[in-house]
Amino acid sequence: MACSLPPLHAAVSTSPRLPSLRSSRSPSRPAPRTQPLSPSEPKVLRHCPPPPPRALPDIAAAGLRDALAESFLASPPTWRSSAASNLAIFVAGSPVLVSGLSASGIAAAYLLGTLTWRAFGIPGFLLVVAYFVVGTAVTKLKIKQKEAQGVAEKRGGRRGPGSVIGSSAAGCLCALLSIYNVGGTPLAALWKLGFVASFCTKLSDTVSSEIGKAFGRTTYLVTTFKVVPRGTEGAISVEGTLAGILASFFLTSIGYLLGQVDVKQSVLCILASQIANYGESYIGATLQDKEGFEWLNNDIVNVLNISIGATSAVLMQLFLMSWSS
């Protein structure tokens, strides 16, 4: 028996139709008015000055500053730090140096300054600076009058290397003895004393001579006390002698304040300077410009003068040390 299946009818579902959307047209707008473009003005090229030169970079400047500070504060000073510190001071003080020294004199003074700094540090260097400033000032004093009388220093008072060496030979020797520690610690104070005494002696000699030539009313020959013209070798005056004593007192006071000498040693420096100045005047009156002693010029006499001063101070100090022991 056949059974018949009912016919299958696929249900077809139709999707609902979407209503059609009318495209709404926006009302037309008039085109905006545009302003006519004005012709562009020609550009004017301005001349700009060139940029300033670039300064030293901060790092390099700071490095140079630190290097100089290290040289100044090096303790004990080395040859390198002494040369660098001295060079910086010479560059800064070049106007003063040029007024008192010739070019070769400045070179000799640089060597003296480096040696002094190496041996005695800043205090010793400042002592020499004080000597130079005062000595230059009195040399320039009434320079026109001295030139008219024929008793002024040559080159308008500017001293050359011979004068620098003649004024510092004994001090340089004391500095070398101190640097190389000759005699050890017991003699270190003696070399410093000799150094101070030599410059006290030379400043006293310079001041007494220049003040005597500028203001001395009457000058006497040291051997006979006869009246002689100003500028005569071996001549002294009351004004010059008193000024020389004050000059030695001034410089030894600087040495005391800088810790180079004590009170007793300061007195020895003043006494030694006057002994040396009398000896220098005696040599000038009896030997200088005499036959057979033409080689004995002012520079050599200056070396003898400061050597007598330094040696006298050291010997008196040794005598006091032996007497008190």
Automatic annotation (TrEMBL):
Which intervals of the chain are annotated as region Disordered? 1-51
* Compositional bias per record (Low complexity), positions renumbered to this chain: 13-34
| Transmembrane intervals | 87-113, 119-141, 162-183, 235-258, 300-320
Subcellular localization, as worded in the UniProt entry: Membrane
One GO cellular component term of this record is:
chloroplast inner membrane
Membrane topology of the entry: Multi-pass membrane protein
The answer to whether keyword ATP-binding applies is no
Keywords of the record, alphabetical order, are:
Membrane, Transmembrane, Transmembrane helix
Q: In the UniProt record, does the keyword Membrane occur? A: yes
Pfam families (alphabetical): DUF92
In the record, the note on similarity to other proteins reads:
Belongs to the TMEM19 family.
PANTHER family found in the cross-reference section:
TRANSMEMBRANE PROTEIN 19
**What's the name of the protein?**
Uncharacterized protein
